[in-house]
Design goal:
The protein is of the alpha+beta class. The protein has a single domain, classed as Jelly Rolls. The chain is built from five helices and 13 strands. The strands form three sheets. The chain has a six-stranded antiparallel beta sheet. The longest helix is centred in the first third of the chain and has 16 residues. The protein is globular.
Length: 219
């Protein structure tokens, strides 16, 4: 069992070219933008998620058959220095309103259908946060409750209990590193104490069986 399965998170270096990282910074997050959703139609993002899948398959973290189903870009800046409370990543984009039992909490965001998949689907998902800038203790790094991904879908009270029970880790990364996460891990981030860019391309892969519901995009 690898460290990702045990901990629910790990950081690995990637071989993504520095020129590609620079283009991602410039094109995904222009000045003053805190985040951009649904980027899998963007050619450079498509190329990057394919390259990441190849690298992670080589290292045994991800099956080569996995499909990217979501790509989002985030940034923290002196002007937009946000924090995120303890939570799990549970809502994902679909091609149409969900109808299958077990897919819950349907809603729309920016005209796109989202829903919460069943636990088994969530356990077959895998998040890659490609860091486009260095991320240290001062610029709002992600914090994770190590091992908390093994408890399934949690309500707000159970999340707080897991925060108390599980060791908390600060997930630091260099430019070009990938922070790998299980979506069910309880995680959060604080405001930066020394605000500057903390740009991330956040990609989610699904490696389970084909679903009755169709993802919004699948690369």
């Amino acid at each position: 069992m690898n460290d990702l399965e045990l901990q629910g998170w790990t950081v690995v270096p990637t071989r993504i070219d520095s020129g590609v990282l620079c283009k991602l910074r410039d094109e995904m997050l222009p000045g003053g933008t805190a985040g951009t959703r649904c980027l899998l139609d963007h050619l450079l993002v498509k190329e990057t998620v394919v390259r990441l899948r190849e690298e992670l398959a080589e290292s045994g973290y991800l099956p080569s058959s996995a499909v990217a189903i979501q790509a989002v870009a985030f940034d923290k800046t002196p002007e937009i220095n946000w924090k995120v409370a303890w939570h799990q990543d549970l809502m994902f984009p679909f091609a149409a309103p969900v109808r299958t039992p077990g897919f819950t909490l349907p809603c729309k965001k920016d005209g796109i259908d989202y829903a919460r998949p069943p636990r088994k689907v969530l356990e077959d998902m895998f998040t890659v946060r490609l860091h486009l800038d260095d991320c240290d203790e001062t610029n709002g790094p992600l914090r994770a409750c190590t091992g908390s991904h093994r408890h399934g879908i949690l309500d707000s009270g159970s999340i707080l209990l897991r925060v108390k029970e599980h060791p908390q880790a600060t997930c630091l990364a260099k430019t070009g590193d990938a922070l790998l996460l299980k979506p069910l891990i309880v995680h959060a981030s604080s405001q930066a104490v020394m605000p500057r860019h903390r740009r991330v391309l956040h990609v989610v892969y699904h490696s389970g069986t084909v679903l009755t519901e169709s993802w919004h995009r699948a690369i």
